[in-house]
Design a protein that fits this description.
alpha+beta, Beta-lactamase, 10 helices, 15 strands, 29% helix
């Protein structure tokens, strides 16, 4: 009889501690959507747009309320995609770097508005690199480089192109090794991995530590992101997903042995969700670091972020006050500010946006070059986000192409 009472007691305790199953998601406008409806619609979109693999994470009350993977990690083998598999994070790398630099600035270790060259013993054009295309030597003839600050690098206002081997209109030009400044630093928005790379170099020199060490100490270890790194790790070998082309062809895995703040990070939906949860929590509690990170530094009036239309102006995004902070995009909604970051690399397409005042957000991570064609619909379905500037991001729905 005593043993029966113990068994009953354990059953009651287990039942009390079991996390209740989430049956619906709260959206930004106060509406809800059931898990069944959400998943049915996502599956339909994935099938219609030929998205090989897709993961959706939704945050309610600062924490993960829903997380699921759909499709394949390797289409050729029909291996199912999992939420704990390693993805190439692409430019999600920049949002983590923005957080690291905001911490460093908040601690007084760097002045965001002090010209970067003042932190260096060697002039930027004279810095030595192992490969010619990494250097800044031709800037000797353009002293505007002396105006570039950390804030400009993270806000994409340095005047640099995204990468020197890609023209401002998106034309690949592999023969180009020299970098140039297209406009006076600080005056315009133009997305630039080159600017992020320059800031990484300066930060590493100031602190005497490499980016990977800084990231592990300040972000990955504290948040238990043990499957995230700016360089490839041996432990990733048995647990990663492949990227896929628009025709769903498998792309060979490319690994990185050098940390790059602009785009070398490998992560999982589970791990990156831990990072976003932390950022939502900090921002909703008015943290000094996120206040610094999410302060608008430049208004954006370009038609698109990349391509020929990035050189044209529009007022289409005036209603959301489209802007940029430290490594994150910023928009205004009737429900508070939204902070977003995308990632785009060969075979991998990602997007995240958080609304800290509503304590919610969404993370989309995919190993398919078709994924961005369903982002608009999934954002609206999942959290009622109709504010992301989908045309500016080139998230053209598959049925509108």
């Amino acid at each position: 009889m005593r043993y029966l009472r113990i068994i009953i007691m354990l059953s009651v305790i287990t039942g009390c501690c079991k996390k209740p199953e989430i049956k619906q998601i709260n959206r930004i406008d106060g509406s809800t959507i059931t898990i069944a409806e959400l998943e049915a619609n996502i599956k339909s979109l994935i099938d219609s747009a030929n998205v090989t693999g897709f993961t959706v994470t939704i945050f309610n009350q600062d924490t993960v309320a829903y997380q699921k993977a759909f499709g394949y990690s390797n289409f050729a083998k029909k291996d199912s995609l999992k939420i704990n598999q390693v993805f190439y994070g692409a430019s999600l790398s920049k949002s983590v770097f923005g957080y690291i630099v905001a911490q460093i600035a908040n601690e007084g270790l760097i002045d965001l508005d002090k010209p970067l060259h003042e932190y260096l013993d060697t002039p930027i054009p004279d810095m030595q690199f192992d490969r010619v295309w990494r250097g800044f030597h031709n800037l000797k003839n353009d002293e505007r480089y002396k105006d570039i600050t950390a804030r400009m690098c993270l806000s994409h206002t340095t005047g640099f192109p995204n990468w020197r081997w890609v023209s401002r209109t998106g034309v690949f030009q592999p023969e180009v090794e020299e970098i140039e400044i297209y406009f006076d630093p600080g005056t315009e928005y133009s997305y630039s991995g080159e600017g992020i790379r320059l800031l990484q170099i300066v930060i590493e020199k100031i602190l005497g530590k490499g980016l990977e060490q800084l990231a592990q100490e300040r972000v990955f270890d504290p948040l238990d992101m043990d499957m995230t790194s700016y360089v490839w790790q041996q432990r990733f070998e048995s647990n990663y997903c492949y990227g896929h082309t628009t025709e769903e062809k498998v792309i060979d895995k490319d690994t990185e042995d050098e940390a790059g703040a602009a785009g070398s990070m490998e992560t999982t939906p589970v791990d990156y969700s831990k990072f976003l949860s932390k950022i939502i929590e900090l921002s909703s509690h008015n943290s000094d670091v996120t206040n610094l990170m999410f302060a608008p530094n430049i208004r954006i009036n370009s038609k698109t972020q990349f391509g020929p239309e990035s050189l044209e102006s529009t007022n289409a995004n005036d209603s959301i006050d489209l802007s940029y902070g430290l490594g994150w995009g910023i928009l205004k909604s009737p429900y508070g500010q939204g902070y977003f970051k995308e990632g785009h690399g060969e075979g991998f397409q990602h997007y995240s946006i958080i609304f800290p005042e509503k304590h919610l957000g969404i993370l989309l991570m995919s190993n398919s070059d078709n994924a961005e064609s369903i982002f608009k619909e999934v954002l609206e379905l999942g959290i009622g986000d109709t504010y992301t500037p989908w045309y500016w991001e080139d998230y053209i729905p598959y049925n509108m192409k």
